[in-house]
């Protein structure tokens, strides 16, 4: 397996070196989760997680549906008990009867083999945390781990993990090995420290057990609440997988990112950095807000990097003394009128100085050329000049004339 460098240096038609602006994604094996594929040549998949207690059958069904309807492609639920695991059977049945199949991932923690085996009957993918799956309560007086102790716990992990691996393997289902920086097992902390190396080795231990049982329907995640740790861990994971001939897809996320503007910026800094390097096959933005608020952030990250196009791309100048209209107000009007469309680039530019050049790649342009009038462009071509108060209306008419308009 090869991870291509990004950006790549290529020869232009004139023979000079130029920079390739395409993100070359790491080549990974495709993993099927219900009717969605993670990895391979498939688009980066968007995920989120419901807040509802899984024992609330109707509430969980409604929450899963809400997320799926706005573009969440895989939905995660928590299963802290056997009762929760059993409830998933009814959730899945009601979801299918009232809506449609939605890929569901079940989160299993704390000595969860029995729960995981039950939940594996009902859903498409099980997520386990290596630091908690076989949970050993830390000893306050411990100073180190002997090699014998380390291996004894490793044997216990294998015995506990094997039934789940076999169950998923035989059903053709998937597993996410989800390592969290904040919940590394004590023996990993003593051996590797509270480091990206400890996170990677924790994942590799579980991967090797799965591979020894001929199970490779795996997605790997290494999450941290600190962006530099999350980035370093994923880069190191890719390096180690390359060395070991592994091609498992990666799930990216900054865990416990918080809320509001900073939570979004923090998530974008971590997820976007790795995606720009070609690393990552599925993402979740973890906000301390309603799960539905996570999905637009995911798509904005993917669209800004050119990895998916799911909405209108707006190009707008920052405004200056040359601007001939209230740019912020007009951009808002244009966005409100066209935000339901997909696959278009629309530029709103305040003046003629930079407008046509800066918006050259846009499908449509809305440019201030003289006071009180708007010039509308199709690509680089000026189509018509209209009074400012009719600018948005005439932009819509131009899109309609090109048969690229759909009603909201």
UniProtKB/TrEMBL annotation:
GO terms for biological process: isopentenyl diphosphate biosynthetic process, methylerythritol 4-phosphate pathway; terpenoid biosynthetic process. [4Fe-4S] cluster binds at residues 317, 320, 351, 358. Residues 313-400 form the IspG C-terminal domain. Binds 1 [4Fe-4S] cluster. Pfam families: GcpE (PF04551), GcpE_C (PF26540). Residues 1-21 have a biased composition (Polar residues). Keywords: 4Fe-4S, Iron, Iron-sulfur, Isoprene biosynthesis, Metal-binding, Oxidoreductase. It comes from the Bacteria. Its EC number is 1.17.7.1. GO terms for molecular function: 4 iron, 4 sulfur cluster binding; 4-hydroxy-3-methylbut-2-en-1-yl diphosphate synthase activity (ferredoxin); iron ion binding. Residues 1-26 are annotated as: Disordered. Pathway: Isoprenoid biosynthesis; isopentenyl diphosphate biosynthesis via DXP pathway; isopentenyl diphosphate from 1-deoxy-D-xylulose 5-phosphate: step 5/6. Residues 28-299 form the IspG TIM-barrel domain. Gene3D superfamilies: Dihydropteroate synthase-like, Sulfite Reductase Hemoprotein, domain 1. Converts 2C-methyl-D-erythritol 2,4-cyclodiphosphate (ME-2,4cPP) into 1-hydroxy-2-methyl-2-(E)-butenyl 4-diphosphate. Belongs to the IspG family. This is 4-hydroxy-3-methylbut-2-en-1-yl diphosphate synthase (ferredoxin). It comes from Chroococcidiopsis cubana SAG 39.79.
